[in-house]
Every structure is written in structure tokens, then in C-alpha cells.
Amino acid sequence: MKFGAGAVASILLASAAFLPATVQAQTQSAPTAAPEADQQPDNGDIVVTAQKREESLQSVPISIQAIGTKKLDQLNISNFNQYTQLLPSVSFQTTQPGSTTVYMRGVASGGDGNHSGSLPSVGFYLDEQPITTIGGTLDIHIYDVARIESLAGPQGTLYGASSEAGTVRIITNKPDLSHFYGRMDGEVNTVAHGGQGGKVEGLINAPINASMAFRVSGFYERDAGYIDNVAGTRSFCGTTLTADGCVRDGLTIDNKAFVKKDYNESDLWGGRAALKIDLDDSWTVTPTVLYQEAKYHGAYAMDPQVGDLQIQRFFQEYRHDRFIQAALTIEGKVGNWDVTYAGAYLDRQDQQSSDYTDYAEAYDQIYASSGGIFYYGDYANAAGQQIDPRQHIVASDHFKKLSQEFRVQSPQDERLRVTAGMFYQRQSNAIHQDYQVDNLAPDLSVNGHPGTLWLTQQHRVDKDYAMFGEASFDIVPTVTLTAGGRAFIYDNSLIGFYGFGRNPGDGYTAQPYNGALSSGTGVARCFATDGLRLTGYGDQPSSTTRVLLPASVPGGPCTNLANYVQGAGIQPITARGEGFTHKLNLTWKPSKQFLLYGTWSRGFRPGGINRRGDIAPYNPDYLTNYEVGAKATLFGGKLRVSSALYQQNWRKFQFSFLGPNSFTIINNGPNARIRGIEADASLALGALALTAAGAYNDAKTTSNLCTTAISTCSGDDLLAPSGTRLPITPRFKINGTARYTVPVGAAKAYAQVLVAHQSSASSDIRVAYAATQGRLKQYTTGDLALGAEWATFSLELFAQNLWDERAQLSRFQVCGVCTQRSYIVTSTPRTIGLRGGVKF
């Protein structure tokens, strides 16, 4: 079954036509205050669907954290960074919002997230539908959300390929048939060292008739900037070359045109609409549409060499990220078995521009003794005059994802319970990266793209097929054995162009070949009409026709990332495979208050294709998890505690790094071992509610990481010796909240504190590279809120990052050899604001 956003949108718009009259009728009979039916009490036992069925959080025999509606609202959580600080098993790398790679339980090699790199190791779901994307997690605005579930450890049986290390699920509030209600919320804030921001959010739930309800929510958010782009200059070797090498004779550029305070402001807006249709007592159909758009301006990192919250950029920078998802969920019964269909189509487009001056600066320094980047290459205009060698990147990605799942479940009150299903998804990405050098001569540029030094124009497709099942059997009433498995097939392909141009003069033999003087990359390796490459390599002959075949991917000059098959022409490079993952769980529940479990499970990531054609495809990697856990509900439900102890063995993990020409390369690295413990607790003491969650991870390689061979290397070939800690994930991560509520007249006044801490971590697995890039420092942040709630109104004064901590979220360098400048993505400085809301 295939469907598009337009089809579902038409259903929702047709339903919306009935809304005004329905709203009027419902308003006349609605109570003055209508609390949302989906909200759960502060310290109540949250109902989750982590195992594809509704269960009490304390009854699920896996390590899972759930943040419910009430707590999401109380903590003013609206984005990814805010909710992940409450999930101690989660860590991430980021360069800016919407460009984030997520890790769980220390399963991180660093360098992931490239649009043509490895698939993620952590899966993301919106309700029943996967939203895991290649090249950046969707930063879905959190509003009108029932709960966020964090499932730590491999979830390969029920959730598949990109849930190797865990799964995060965002569960939205569904249309409610009971009555009409809504709410509006607003906020204004000011950021220390920055500007002012705010947001407005709202929702309406409207029954249309006894069997149909419509729910819509929307938001607009303006985030203040706090990074200043300050004045600076860069100098390059000029046209004068002495016996000592470089002479910087006047080729100095400045960034006066781009100097700006609070450089990184952003605007976000979007909405979600859902229609619930009860066809009868057994069958429900729920179509939904989500749309979100974000415009990010400037850079979200600071350069510590320049100053606190400061950077020097020499080109315009921005990112425009928008996506729409149309989803359909059908739930019903056949006999006494539950049947569910969940399908979705996601379309995400982003355009961005980024400064690549550091690349030119680095190469100018590397080749200074020979005259710098000018003599290393041929950065000249059409008249042969030297030009400014700096680069900037104009890029876009068009990501599409179709997913479909069908499953059945036996009655949950029987001794033997079964869940079984089938899954299919197809992901594609149209990749465009244009490395531009202003005024570069056409003959030195990528053919047909004047001013482009390097071009990536590729199309990637990842397809997954799976059959899965789990069966649980009560050996005795208090002991349950669960066994599950997932048989999978992956079929991935990549085709297109990458590299420099080729001077077309004299049948592509004229020199200089291109601005980088490269003779064997880019157009030189494209296929010609005789099936041979334009220029041979090694024992491969050169084309005799010297006439290039048309580009397989529109926008490219030709095709060099492909295979040529006689009689079939140019074909994509493929990586195909199949396998099986398992899960075995034993649960003992001696009473309703206690649960003990042990799990042996396995997760995986598919293999894939390196976009550099001379690098072999990489293989799948696998994670095996051994885990024991306990959960307890004590003192009449006032205290809830859960914990898990685990060891994970990560076999031949996929390792991404920037190789020559800062080109992403993916290899299968060594093995790693991760040992850890995670725990969370909540305590209700009348007016005082306390929560705490923490994790400890000891993640290390168990053999050498090398540039070529595994375990047997030394010298420059050794990137990380055995025993090197895996990067990004801190050894400790912990958070705690306290909320005290007291009645004051008709209101409930409250004070709330949130404190989060994490220890330091390496920024990269490669020891020498991590030393130049710098270590992620430990940090502690705190939030404070004072407010009051009435029956239909709320008001709150809040401070986030109370003591203005520079929490280092990520460190990065612009290219593989750009070690002269390391950048730090830091938390938003202290933010003080006022927010209020009204329910109706």
C-alpha cells in the first residue's frame, strides 16, 4: 500500500471542514476547564508500548525510561537537547540543530552522520512509524506529546536495523472522542550574551461525531542568537616564491561583510494534525500529518582561539530544513487477535551553505615551503590570474522514506503470547555538495559548473525487508520466558559523481587538468561510451572514444561512482546481505511490586557503499548484549526504582573518518567491549516529588584500530591501541529533579529544580586526532522554575542553565587536515524567561 502526503492531507482537510460548527457546538456544552485526557500524573505508573503492546512501565522487562506529558510540560521541554539531558544512556554529536548523530550506552565510534555514511545505530520512531534518517536526527518540536520512551540496548527484534544500540520513541497525544478542549501556551525569554526569543504553541481537540475526532497542534519558535561573528583576516601565500618558500605578499582577506552579533538565531514553525475514526467497536483508523520547517542562520559553534561565544566566518552560513510526514495507522481485531498496520511516507529537504575557509588555510600552511595552496594547485581565473583560494560549500539533501509494517498479536491474557509481523522500508537520498571557489576559471572547474572545484552529485537507496516475531510463555505464573528473532535482508545502492573536473581541451588531455591539478579523480574516472573510464588507473585501460556517457544522476557532469555492465550500461554499486538477530529474556515477578529479568539480545547495522569508488564497501556490524535488571515499586507506589547491569560486545564496528581530500571513508574497525550500569528512581512525598537517573559506561576497544589491517599495525598505521576508550559518551551521566507544590488560594504554587551532570569524554577515537581536537570537558548545568497553576491558567518564571555553564556538546574540525582550528558546540547560555498558558 502506497500513499502520499497529499492523500492524507485531503482527508484531514475534509474533516477540518466540519470543525467550525463542531467547535461551536462542543464549546456550548464543554466545561470551563478541560484537562487533557492523555496526561498522566507526576509520579504515576506510566503506560508504555515499547514491546508493541500497552504495559505498565514497571512491568516491562527491558531497560526503559519514559518521560510523560506532565513532566515534559513541567520541565518546559521542546527540543532534542532538552529531553536527551534527562536520558543518561543517550549521547550525541552535533554541529547545529537538525544535524545530530545519536548514540546509546557508549556504542559510538565517532564521525558518523554523513549523508552517504553508515546508517544510525539508534532508531527513532514517531508513534508507530520509524523516522530514523541518514545524516541527522529529526529535531521534532515537543508539544502535545504523550511521552518519550528511551529503550536502551539492542532492539533488533521488534525495531530492526537502526536500533542496534537502542531506540527512542516519541508518542503523540491522540484525538479524544470524549469532549472538545484546547490550550494555548506562550513564552518570552532573553539569552545571556545574546538576544531575545520566544514561542507560541497551541492545540485543539474536537470530536466531530460519536466515532470521529480531530486533533491539531501548531507552534512558532524564535531562538535568540548568542554566537558573535567577529572581525578577522586570513592571509595566504601569494605569487612570489623565494628559496624559503611562501611569501604572503598582500593576499589577505577579511570578513567585514559578515560581521554580526548574535549570529546564530533561528526560526522554527510547524504543526501536526490527526484524525481518529472508529469504524466499529474493533477497528480504528488514524491518519496523521506532521510538517516542520526550520531556518538556522550562522554557526552554532565557537572558536576558543577567538574568544568566548565568538567565531570568525568569511562566507554566509545557513541551513534550511523542512520535512513532512504522512502516516496511517490501522488497528483492529480478527477474532481475539490484535492486528496493526503502520505505514508512513517522510519527505525531508534541506539546503545549506557553509564556510570552508579552514580547508584553504590548512593546505596553504601544509605547502608553505613550496609556495602554499597557489603553487600546490592552480587557483586562477579565466585570464590566468591568481584568485582568492577560499572555498565555501553549497549543499542540499532530499531524503525520502517509505515504511510499512504489518503485525498480529495473540491475546495478552493467555499463557502463551505471540507477536509476529513483516516490515519493509525504502530510504533514498539525493545528495548535492558544491565546493565553490569564486571566479575559478571554467576549464579548471567541474565540467559544466564554472566556479566549482569539487562536486558530489549522488543518489543513495537503502532498502530493508524483515520478518520478526516474539513469543512469551509463562512457565509458572511468576516466571516468563520470551524468545524472539528477526530475519532481515538489506539491499543498498549508490550511484553518481564525485570529484574534480577535467580540462576538456585536446580531448581531456590539456593541462592544467583542474584547479587542484588532480589527474586521476573526478571526471577523469567517468565512464565513456565504450564502457571504459576516461582515464585508466593501474592496469585498467583508458577509453578510446573519449566521449563521456550522460550523467546517471541529474546535475552531474558524468558518472564515476558506478559499475559498467556490458549490455546493461551503467549500474549502481550495491551492498546486499541478509542475517538474523535474536532475543532471549527470562523474567521473574514474585509480586506486583518486584521484577527481575535477564536478557541476551543482538542488534545490527547493515553494510554499505563508500562514496569514494576506490574504497571497498563496508560490512554490517553487530552488537551482542548481556543484561540483568530489576524494578521495584515500594511504599504503596510512592517510590519506583529500576536498574540494569550490562555488557555489550561490538564486533567489527563501522568506523567513519575524513580521509584524503576530507572525504568520508567507512571501514570495519576492531571489536569493542562496553560495560555499564544505568538506574532511575522517582519518589513522591506529598508536596515534594523527586526523580533521579544516571548511567556509567566503560567502553573500550579490545584490539588495535588501524588505517589498513586490524590488530597487527604499528607506527603511523596505528590510530588507536587496544584499550582506547570509545569517544563521545561520558563515563558518568546523571540528572535529578525536585518539585515542591503548595496550595495558595485557588492556585497551586510550585518551585522546581533540575540539575544535570556528565563527565568528560574523548572527542574522537583516533588518539592523535583527539589530542589536536581537544577533549569534551565535564559540566554541570541547572534549571530553576517558579510558578503557579490555576484551573484554566498557568504562569511561570524560569531560568535555564542557571549559572551560565559552557557545556561542551561537541567538538569538531572542518576537514581532515584542519587541525589549526577546533570548534566547540556549546549549550545555550543562561536563559531567563516567562511563560504562561491557558486551557479551554
Please describe what this structure looks like.
With 840 residues, this protein is mainly beta. Helix content is 7%, strand content 49%. It contains eight helices and 46 strands. β34 and β35 (664-668) form a beta hairpin. It is globular, with a radius of gyration of 28 Å. The relative contact order is 0.12. Mean pLDDT is 90; it is low at 1-43.
Question: Descriptors for this entry?
Answer:
22-stranded antiparallel β-barrel, five-stranded mixed β-sheet, 8 helices, globular
Give me a quick take on this structure.
This protein has 840 residues and is mainly beta. 7% of the residues lie in helices and 49% in strands.
Structural class: mainly beta
Beta strand %: over 45%
Extended strand count: 46
Query: What would the principal axes of the Cα set say about the shape?
Result: globular
Topology:
Elements: H1 5-16, H2 19-29, E1 47-48, E2 55-56, E3 64-68, H3 69-74, H4 80-84, E4 90-96, E5 99-104, E6 122-126, E7 129-130, E8 145-152, E9 166-172, E10 181-191, E11 196-209, E12 212-223, E13 228-229, E14 233-235, E15 241-242, E16 245-246, E17 252-254, E18 266-278, E19 284-297, E20 301-302, E21 310-311, E22 318-334, E23 337-355, H5 357-366, H6 372-376, E24 392-409, E25 416-436, E26 452-476, E27 479-499, H7 505-508, E28 563-565, E29 569-571, E30 573-591, E31 594-605, E32 621-634, E33 639-651, E34 654-658, E35 664-668, E36 672-685, E37 688-701, E38 705-706, E39 718-720, E40 732-744, E41 747-758, H8 767-773, E42 779-789, E43 793-800, E44 808-812, E45 823-826, E46 831-839
Parallel strand pairs: 6-9, 13-21
Antiparallel strand pairs: 1-2, 3-8, 4-5, 6-7, 8-9, 10-11, 10-46, 11-12, 12-18, 14-17, 15-16, 18-19, 19-22, 20-45, 22-23, 23-24, 24-25, 25-26, 26-27, 27-30, 28-29, 30-31, 31-32, 32-33, 33-36, 34-35, 36-37, 37-40, 38-39, 40-41, 41-42, 42-43, 43-46, 44-45
